[in-house]
């Protein structure tokens, strides 16, 4: 029998916000040929890798967030590594006017937009009792409000008449009421619900709307903010697949949902977490200690 890697073997990844030094294709390199994707939060972490993997499959991208300097550096790296175009645009997903300007600029530049990835988010550890009203609202506004704002604007400006695909990024936090996460867990659960509502309303306009819920993903701001330093070893024993995921794996999930491979999928949430939420304990005492130590660090 020929020795092959097991089918849960992760693709290569790099921990930093840099492109992969090399890439082995699993799908056709022309899977998204001629397409244009608008990716919120595409200048860092998971959003950056989604942009890279889409571009490696023939797509041009627009990456949108608040920090234009970081976006411009990211766009340069992405273009050099993939040979596709990447347009960096400043925008705050809480401010519809800034997204309207970004979508207008996208259409002026590329004359089309085929894919919207709602990836921008904000998060931190905080118990509900210590969370200010404004802190709760801020995360809801970025995650849930931002997803609605971008979806509505892209729909009205292009998808309504041409069809398109929306890939929302949520999380499994609400599935078992993750401690210290009432703000993000509520915001992401609302995104799962919004995915279904918009899939139903916009299906007749040939718009597919799906969601991807990652588990703990290495080399991300999410892990740096939410997890303990020894997270990798702790999670190895509690996750069925015995490891954290990587950004390339999540990007491959987004690529699948965005592509014609998922042509009959809409209104679903694809969980990509190695089975994590099924088995990882919701550690109340340890999480409170982690929050206290992180709070002390920032004081
Ligand atoms: C899930 C783990 C839970 C527990 C851990 C236990 C065990 C760990 C084991 C396993 C888990 C392992 C991994 C996690 C698995 C999955 C992760 C799931 C989801 C990840 C989701 C993510 O979104 S990650 C993305 C992270 N990236 C970012 O957040 C970048 C963007 N962020 C920001 O811009 C800011 O942080 C912001 C969100 C605060 C927004 O900035 P801005 O608009 O400038 O807002 P401010 O004016 O600064 O603040 C607004 C109000 O918010 C209050 N605030 C801000 N920071 C905090 C904080 N750290 N704690 C409490 N409150 C905060 C601020 O004070 C303002 O409120 P006021 O009342 O003062 O006005
Ligand atoms: N990391 C993980 O393990 C997990 C992550 N996720 C989800 O994956 C996605 C990416 O997370 P991750 O890569 O870890 O984190 P990042 O912090 O790298 O990504 C978040 C991005 O959102 C942008 N952003 C934040 N606020 C706004 C805003 N108001 N307007 C526009 N853009 C904004 C940030 O850019 P800028 O600061 O320039 O605005 C940043 O690029 C998020 O949706 C997160 O919830 C879900 C589960 C697990």
Automatic annotation (TrEMBL):
Q: Quote the subcellular location field of this record.
A: Peroxisome
What InterPro entries does the database record attribute to this sequence?
DECR2-like, NAD(P)-bd_dom_sf, SDR_fam
This protein's source sits in the domain of life called Eukaryota
The cross-references to CDD domains, in alphabetical order and at most eight, read: TER_DECR_SDR_a
Q: Which SUPFAM superfamilies match?
A: NAD(P)-binding Rossmann-fold domains (SSF51735)
One GO cellular component, as annotated: peroxisomal membrane
Kindly provide the name given to this protein in its UniProt entry: Peroxisomal 2,4-dienoyl-CoA reductase [(3E)-enoyl-CoA-producing]
Q: What are the alphabetically sorted keywords of the record?
A: Fatty acid metabolism, Lipid metabolism, NADP, Oxidoreductase, Peroxisome
GO MF terms here are:
2,4-dienoyl-CoA reductase (NADPH) activity
Q: Which family does it belong to?
A: Belongs to the short-chain dehydrogenases/reductases (SDR) family. 2,4-dienoyl-CoA reductase subfamily.
* Transmembrane annotation, as ranges: none
Report the EC code(s) recorded for this entry: 1.3.1.124
Q: How does it assemble?
A: Monomer, dimer and oligomer.
Could you confirm whether the keyword Methyltransferase appears in this record?
A: no
The chemistry this enzyme catalyses reads: a (2E,4E)-dienoyl-CoA + NADPH + H(+) = a 4,5-saturated-(3E)-enoyl-CoA + NADP(+); (2E,4Z,7Z,10Z,13Z,16Z,19Z)-docosaheptaenoyl-CoA + NADPH + H(+) = (3E,7Z,10Z,13Z,16Z,19Z)-docosahexaenoyl-CoA + NADP(+); a (2E,4Z)-dienoyl-CoA + NADPH + H(+) = a 4,5-saturated-(3E)-enoyl-CoA + NADP(+)
Q: What gene does the UniProt entry assign to this protein?
A: DECR2
